[in-house]
Amino acid sequence: MKIDRIIIGVLLAAGVFFSFTGCIKDEFEIPSAPEIPLGHVMTIQELKGLCPSGNTHKFVGDTSVVLVVTMDDKSGNLYKEAYAQDANDGILVRLTSPGGLYKGDSIYINLKGTTLKYYRRVFQIDSVSVDDNIVKRNVGVSIEPEVVTIANINNLDYESRLIKLENVQFVESDTASTFADAPNLEYGELTIHDERGNAVMLRTSGYAKFASENVPNGSGSIIAIAGRYDDVAQLAIRTTKEVQFDGPRFTATGYTGSFDDPYPVIYAIQNNSGSEKWVEGYLVGVYETNIDPFTPSFTAPFNTNSNVIIADSPDETNISNCLVVQLPYGDIRAAVNLRDNGANLGKQIKLRGNLLSYFGSPGLKDTDGYWLDGTGINPDDQIDPFFEEAFTSTLGSFTAHNVLGSQIWEWGNFDGGCAVISGFDGGTSYANEDWLVSPEIDLASRANVNLTIREAINFITSYDDMKVLISTDYDGVSLPTESGSWTELTGFDRPAGNSWTFSESGYIDISQYDGQKIYIGLKYTSSTTKSATWEVGAVRLTEVNE
């Protein structure tokens, strides 16, 4: 603030003045400091704090904002407007008369009598008089454009700022056009896209001096102001010299939506269809379903664990720029949801599912994969099992054997169907021994066989009470305690034992049984003092290539 005042004082003391003539001012006269005091200096970000979206704020005192003009109205692409920015933000300045501000002018605007407002959701200073509100500090100040992507622009991250896009071109259907319809003084709305197919509109006034120029056919870079119209991004250029499309055209390939080439969130929003697509973004919030109506929330703590909201920016709070992701019950919900995993907020994540509308907005449903902090579930890497029992409606191909006690293996509707047993009944623990045994599985033509168990355990006593065993000599009929020798399988991942959350064991190597006929046995025991609940959601056998 002191530096600004010193610079202004030096300029005034040195007698640096400009003159102007005519209705449109080609030169600028600096009034004396007493006429336009500096007052309290604020940043654009601080101005936004005074005027939340949808509101207005009228200044009655001496408050100023120090800016550099990045786009003026000399070309005719703007009228009684200019864009300017400080170190971190850009803003639209609406003038009471045309002219008087020029690209590269370093200025301060005394905001007394002006109004902060939003029009079509564009933040702006309205009713600015070049004579009464503005002091020019310097001229010819160069502002380097920020190199960004179309995804950044569509995410409205750079509103009213000078930007540069690289490796872009006009869509082929626009290459025979001019920048605008000069004879009819109508706006031109052209589409620019990148190699991925991300697209943004370039909007040019029919009054622009370059409106009748032909659009270049090649590819390259463009410098422009990032604007918006409601929630739609658009660009405005200062001169066609900053549209450097002199390279060869390219063919846009788009994103594949694979694990290695996931959709950005904005692309998934704009192309909200397709099955088994990976989307990458940041965890920014939750669509709360514990209130009516359901409401998106971006502030912890959260109450809902059945969905998350992701965006291309970790700071996003506009639901229009977000994708709502369904979290089905199970491992993915347990690992990802923000109600139980508050530290996940702001983290980058990949999620796989079907792109469908969700809560009336673009969404991702039937989520079956995630990748967070270098780990997760990637269905693309999973190998189809040659044997699988998922207990979808019954105990399926497995046979229950009751050796001791009244409690037995039964079917449950958890996790899409499961086998379940507990020695706890009616508030009392009972002594039990129960087996659930697979049919005979022939591994005669199999190699590198692995077993996978999906299970949930609660009220654990000891993993010894819930054993996974294998036999090569069971007769398939008798009680397993009376037939066959059984070998316990150990050393694989198991649930913590204190929740109803299902988890996968990972591959359990049983390749030593390749070429043989086997049975898989699930042995449960309880006593009058200890009785866990064991739920088994699936048993699978897979050939894993080494």
Structure description:
By secondary structure, the chain is mainly beta. The chain folds into four domains: 137 residues, Nucleic acid-binding proteins (OB fold (Dihydrolipoamide Acetyltransferase, E2P)), CATH 2.40.50; 102 residues, OB fold (Dihydrolipoamide Acetyltransferase, E2P); 116 residues, Beta Barrel (OB fold (Dihydrolipoamide Acetyltransferase, E2P)); 157 residues, Jelly Rolls (Sandwich). Helix content is 7%, strand content 40%. It contains six helices and 39 strands. Strands 1, 2, 3, 4, 5, 6, 7, 8 and 9 form a nine-stranded mixed sheet that branches. Strands 25, 27, 28, 33, 36, 37 and 39 form a seven-stranded antiparallel sheet that branches. Strand 23 and strand 24 form a beta hairpin.
Question: Can you lay out the helices and strands and say which pair or pack?
Answer:
Elements: H1 2-13, E1 40-42, H2 44-50, E2 57-58, E3 63-71, E4 81-85, E5 90-95, E6 106-110, E7 115-119, E8 122-128, H3 130-133, E9 134-138, E10 146-148, H4 150-154, E11 162-170, E12 188-194, E13 199-204, E14 219-229, E15 232-236, E16 243-247, E17 263-264, H5 265-270, E18 277-288, E19 295-297, E20 307-311, E21 322-326, H6 331-336, E22 348-358, E23 361-372, E24 375-377, E25 387-389, E26 399-404, E27 410-412, E28 418-422, E29 424-425, E30 428-429, E31 432-437, E32 441-442, E33 449-458, E34 466-471, E35 487-488, E36 503-504, E37 508-509, E38 517-526, E39 533-543
Parallel strand pairs: 1-3, 5-8, 10-11, 13-15, 17-18, 21-23
Antiparallel strand pairs: 2-7, 3-4, 3-6, 4-5, 6-9, 7-8, 11-12, 11-14, 12-13, 14-15, 14-16, 18-19, 18-20, 18-22, 20-21, 22-23, 23-24, 25-39, 26-31, 27-28, 28-39, 29-30, 31-38, 32-38, 33-36, 33-37, 33-39, 34-35, 34-38
